[in-house]
Amino acid sequence: MTARILVVDDVSANLKLLEARLLAEYYDVVTASNGPDAIEICELSKVDVVLLDVMMPGMDGFQVCRMLKASPATTHIPIIMITALSRPADRVRGLEAGADDFLTKPVNDLQLLTRVKSLARLKALTDELRLRAATTRNIGVEQLLEKRAGEDDIPTVLLVEEDPVHARQIRHILRDHFDLDVTHDAASTLVRASSHSYDTIIVSMALGQDPLRLCSRLRAMESTHLVPIILLAGDKDEERIIRGLELAVNDYVLKPVERQELIARLRTQIRRKRYNDGLRSSVARTVEMAVTDPLTGLHNRRYLDSHLESLFDRADARKRPLSVMIADIDRFKAINDTWGHDVGDSVLREFASRLRRNLRGIDLVCRYGGEEFVIVMPETDLAVAKKVAERIRTEIAGAPFPIGDGRRSVTVTASLGVSSKWEADSVEALMKRADFAVYQAKLCGRNRVAASAA
What we know:
Blueprint: E1 4-8, H1 12-23, E2 28-32, H2 35-44, E3 49-53, H3 61-70, E4 79-83, H4 88-96, E5 101-104, H5 109-133, H6 141-145, E6 156-160, H7 164-174, E7 179-183, H8 186-195, E8 200-204, H9 211-220, E9 229-233, H10 238-246, E10 251-254, H11 259-291, H12 301-318, E11 322-329, H13 332-339, H14 341-357, E12 364-369, E13 372-378, H15 382-398, E14 401-403, E15 408-410, E16 414-420, H16 427-443, E17 449-451
């Protein structure tokens, strides 16, 4: 995959060297020689990954990283900090500033390209989610996305480690920051991961079984395919680490484990996971809002129009019965005119609640518009549909609807019409017959059920 990479360094030779390496892999490369220019480029144009030098005059790399991660417009851009500093404290400082990874000069070509590819792939996923979630920003989702890991609860981590001594060391390191579970082999790990929700999984490269095979299986499982995976590796594991990153492992930590670095890398992965989880949640909420009536919580007409056709085709293919019921509240305008629209809304909500209580889980219940409701009943013939409609009519008329603080009530009735699918029928004809049956119920005095047999 191609991506747009921003390289930031105040040394011209370093810029040209990194640019040449990336251009050779067909990346689109843009450069900046100072922090303010880098921030401006990220804010005004599409950037997929930032390669950021730490030691720069004026605004150093740590400051640039913090500013990019603090802005909602750029917080999702992965940042790889490149530095001659090799102390663990310097890596921790960068990770705490929000960097996604660190590379030490002189930069290893294979590590560079593997890291860029991995983070560009992750950025592409985030961009897609951000695009889908864009319409929800005006209902407060952006504030959700700005939350940092650990604000609401203690993150959960699964450690896969055969060596009990190493497992105790990791538990000691993480004890005040994370809720840690430990497994010792691939089989127990897969069982545990499939039944529990984890924010991150740490896999030791010292497993007797192939640790990358385990990572591959975790990535393929529905319950864990979006959970960040961090490898716990030794100095001689470089080739397997690179292979793991190509398999969509998210990060790695070298032994002996430095406490603050491990904590910082875990927080980085969890922060990004929760950011993307928030985006997915907003997408799901957007879809739900598009097909849900906000007043009653029932499906709306848009959902009915798209789903009824599927239910009809399935019944037709299986030669099974299908019935439609339309329920219309009698004299609803008079309720609004007498009591006010707030009482009218309360009546609609209670009406929807009584419908739900008298229908099955497989029945599709929709607010069709105004005071009219449509119920689609699979595996139901006309005789049974009439009985269900009568039960609903009795439920509606049998007890007054409470209004306001519950001290007052209003009597509500409904006219219901039912129709059933015929051979050589159509959705339009089925709905038209049910609508005609409602009309007949109204003509005959309201508060009754009518069935259309023709």
